[in-house]
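Cross-check.
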Amino acid sequence: MVMNNKLHIDLRLFAGILVLTLVLGLALGVLIALELRPEPTTPTVTNPTEADPTENAPTDTAPTDTAPTDTTPPETSTGPTLPPNPFDSDDFTYGENGYLTTDAGVAIPGIDVSEHQQHIDWEQVKASGIEFVMIRVGWRGQTQGLITEDTLAQEYYAGAKAAGLKIGAYFFSQAISPEEAIDEAEYMLEMIRDWEVDMPLVYDWEPISPTDRTAVVDSALLTQCVRSFCDTVDDAGYRPMVYFNSFLADTLLQLDDVKDYPFWLALYTHEMDYPHAVEMWQYSCTGQVPGIALPVDLDLWFPESQS
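Predicted model, tokenized:
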């Protein structure tokens, strides 16, 4: 009995050791397998709906290693082919009355006015040496584009005419089509139908803000507007004129395309250094004239420049 019991115990001990050995061996195998297994790689995911923002970005210069060599000499811009300005920059001086004058040619002093100058004593204006006036008859709004009458235009005409001044007129345009420019010209012609006009009827188109309705007007469209207005005035038997400043002429208004009409230049200086001939020069927007309580634009008219 004792012998059999011992044998039974030994057998159980052996079996336990065998099971433990197998378990340890299995565990060791698993560990070795895990150690030798290659690490997984993370796949690159590309979003097909979103492009690289730098992929199509423009560059400042073309690559020099692939750009062909151009041996053609660059073109030189000669600017508008217009008659040269006959005056030198030092031809003008201020006279005793405070207006510019010159001995280099005929230069007639004048003013241009709108309702902003309020009521005017035209006799005092005439007595101060002013010989002509350009009267604004109306204007088009810069946002809605509605045409509005200058509330003092008719009063200005009556007073200036009675004082013996030469009279012209202008319309402040914000036209964005040739049709609107024609409407403006026809409006002006209706406003002055009973006037005795001695001076030109002027198209004054100016950009006010890049957010206004005129932002759509490019150089070609502005040329069309100018020509449409001026041709309408000319067809009615009056003399048209185009008002501009040097910035407008340099950036948008192509003078060569409208050189059939005389020019009225806004250049606020006492030196006439503009390269092209003009018929009228607005040289100040802060002029002081007897009979006018507020600052006013001062002008010179060069009648000898008429073609």
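The first helix runs from residue 2 to 36. Helices lie at 2-36, 122-127, 153-163, 178-191, 219-235, 246-251. Passed to J.P. for a second look.
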